[in-house]
Amino acid sequence: MEFHRMPGHLVRRLNQISTGLFMERMASAGLTLTPVQFAALNALADRPGIDQATLAGMVAYDRATLGKVVDRLEERGALRRDVSPTDRRARVLELTEAGHALYQSALPHVQAIQPQILTGLNEEERARLIELLEKVTMAGNDMSRAPLRPPED
Q: CATH code at 131?
């Protein structure tokens, strides 16, 4: 198998492209935000009051690294940690007003770059690729060091 056609190489390259487009768009919008920080903001906008472990599962990131992401977002005033009402040892996370504003500012830019990530594909091909990426990602989810773990409703 030729290296440049290996799935791992292609996935890594697509991630580089996606991250590059994201960072370039954020910089041009005057926003200081990483893809993982955006994912955390997105999850907290959807599920305020979750704990850090749940957040890590929702964004499929290891707890230790996500802890640093949460620290940075807290330092910049985008989220706050409060004592859990059900477990005094746990901390729940919520976006602050500034966090909501940051998320709302970034969201249209993130949405706008999605077609660029899959440039060269028509709408039908994009939909099919996304379907296949979801399928293969979920099939291998448990092989990940940081599997996706949606919160239980």
A: 1.10.10.10
Burial 26-56 (b: 16+ CB within 10 A, else e): beeeeeebebbbbbbbbbbeebeebbbebbb
Q: Which range of residues forms the domain containing residue 53?
A: 3-143
Tell me, yes or no, whether 153 lies in a domain. no
User: How high is the mean pLDDT of the chain?
Assistant: 95
Cα distance from N-terminal residue to C-terminal residue, the chain: 44
**CA separation, residue 132 to residues 12, 44, 76, 138, 139 (Å):** 16, 27, 37, 10, 10
Query: Could you tell me the pTM of the whole model?
Result: 0.92
Residue 81: strand pairing partners = 93
Residue 51: what pLDDT?
Answer: 93
Q: Structure tokens of 117?
A: 């990530």
**Total number of domains constituting the chain:** 1
Give the confidence band of 89 by pLDDT, cuts at 50, 70, 90: confident
